[in-house]
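Changelog note: in this version the structure field was regenerated for every chain. One regenerated record is shown below for reference.
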Amino acid sequence: EPSAAEGAAEGEAAAAAPPPAEVVEPAASKAHANLQLILSGEASIGLSLEFLVRSNKTDTLILTGMKKAADQRNSLCHSAIVLAHSLMNAGTTADSFLRDNLEWLSRATNWAKFSATATLGVIHRGHVKQALSLLAPYLPQAGMSASPYSEGGALFALGIIHANHGHSIRAYLLDALRSAGTNEVVQHGCALGIGISMMGSEDEDLYEELKGVLFNDSAVAGEAAALAMGLLMLGSASPKAIEEMLGYAHDTAHEKIIRGLAIGIALCMYGREEEADPLVTTLLHEQDPILRYGAMYTIAFAFAATGSNAALRKCLHVAVSDVSDDVRRAAVIAIGFVLANTPAQCPRVVKLLAESYNPHVRYGSAFAVGISCAGSGSKEALELLTPMLSDPVDYVRQGALLASSMVLMQSADHKADSKLSKHREDLRKVVGDKHEDTMTKFGAIVATGLLDAGGRNVTIGLTSRTGNKIMPAIVGMGIFSHFWFWHPLLLFVSLAFTPTAAIGLNADLRMPQWRFKSGAPPSAFAYPPPTSNEKKEVASTVATASLSTTAKAAKIDKAKKAEAEAAEKAKAAERAEEERVAKEKADLAARDAMLAKLTELHKRGSLSGVLHASLTGVAAKSEGGGAGDAGDAMDTSADAGAAGKPSLEALVGEVREAHARGDISTAAVAAVLKLQPDKADEAEFDFEVLENPSRVLRSQERFCSLLPASRYEPVAKGRTSGVIMLKDTAPDAEEELLPLPAALAAASEAAEEEEPAPPEPFELPA
């Protein structure tokens, strides 16, 4: 028998041995990976990017029209158009307008060049895999020094692309900040990039590095460093950070730095509500109006979307009592943030302030209504803003134009007499009026960009559908309101853009081919009609003189007329035959064009393989059956003599039947049917079939429902917008997934190569 000592030794050895490795099922491991993607936000960012690229409906003719109408010598209008372009294309990766207007773009110099380069971040926001290669021509290079304004703007753009998800570029930006030396422009862009990408991270190393830049007492770099420090400590209420920032605000003489510190202190108190009251009281008793201004933004961030009566009382008191116009304006703007969760109340609360003798208060009331009622189309808000559109003060008109665009975002009423159409016409008039003040014109151009933001597929939302606050959106709108002092901060508004989309996902977080129904006619929630370059020509009628003729001349004319009629009758049969042949050719050409369009839709994932084979008469392949087989189908359908081709009439009938069953979306049907030779009698459908992913407006959600016999059903019953997790009711059947859009597919392929090819730079050297 073993001794007691031997038994104890064996027990210790068994205890020291590592436990057996837990066996993780592949399905569970995959589920954990997907859950991590969702919680980290990577899935949401990728889906939003894919939706905005797919659904981009930006009208570049609007930008071209503003470019022609604005004064070419006015650098402010030039900068405004570049900024408006970035807002209109936010998240769509479409920068063709800039590439097509390189000479015009090269007029941007100094800080305008900084802003122009930074706009690339808004256009490519969320395109994190290709961020460094996209911005490579403008980022600082070792041993090379291009324009510091381009370098600073590129670093800011890098931060915008990685907004609130910047851990992958943290080391790069920190190294860039340390390598900037004493170049305050590069420091400025780098600090803003760090702040926007690492917001709320409370990263002590970055904080200390930014504090070092702040203590150099450079006005330009110090302002951005102070703002970035507040973004890093967002919502932390860190006593150390607040004490250091407030202490330096008392020591420095630079207004720009004090203003950056005031906003930075306010950001530290984000979401803290009553916990911020002592700090607000301290700041309100400061002699420096900039710090009192910071007190108002502390209330705005601390009580955002809470509807707090105590916060409203403070804001209203300061709005009518403070001696500084800036503080009074900030107090009224803060009301918009506090009431962001109850937009119907805001116009009533600021109604009297909108009639104030003080133009700064009027501007603040306009902005408050714009922030609170953004995307709501509120009649009360528009009625309050209308008188301010003709205000005698230029910046009040600017604020009213911007606020009106924010309220009317994603409005679907495109009738000629609608508020939206009138607002678009007002914007065009202001931009084209040579006698209009530059400040108002700047507001009109930016307001045009806001109205059609994100390829006409986003709105401004400070709260989610469930009423929860969206932190980046509130912070972005708060800093956006400071473009009054510094135009590059205008780009922060892109943080508040929320796609108005319905995106269906399967268990693997992929988009399957899925369609659902909107019970309203397509025109009820359609995109705005595209701008046209065509000029209307009015036909002029000329009176014909009647001359008297002799009887003989009349007789000759009668004979000639009889001969002409006889000849005409003889030719009538020939013409009829020619028309019949021409109609047959037109029908055949239209049918072939429709078949080609159906194949294109199949490649894009808008048409299933089975339906494509049924409509085109092309046999579906037994293997795959996905969009990848479309090439063979195209070869067959292009054969004019193919026996399996349906007639035009039969094809139109089959397409309509497929639409009635919900097998093809209304947009796809419209694209096919518009190729008919004679489509004058086309009647609008009384419902709409939408395909995954699709734009769904807030006002449209109540009309949406599942199609009968739909293969996929939402896991959360009744969910009709946002990201919708779908349950597959036929898991054994073959699943057809949507292919990546061409722009993202090319980027994905390039990412797998050793050295991705950067795009051609479109900026001339300084």
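Spot check on this record: Residues 535-547, 620-642 have pLDDT under 50 and may be disordered. The longest strand covers residues 722-728.
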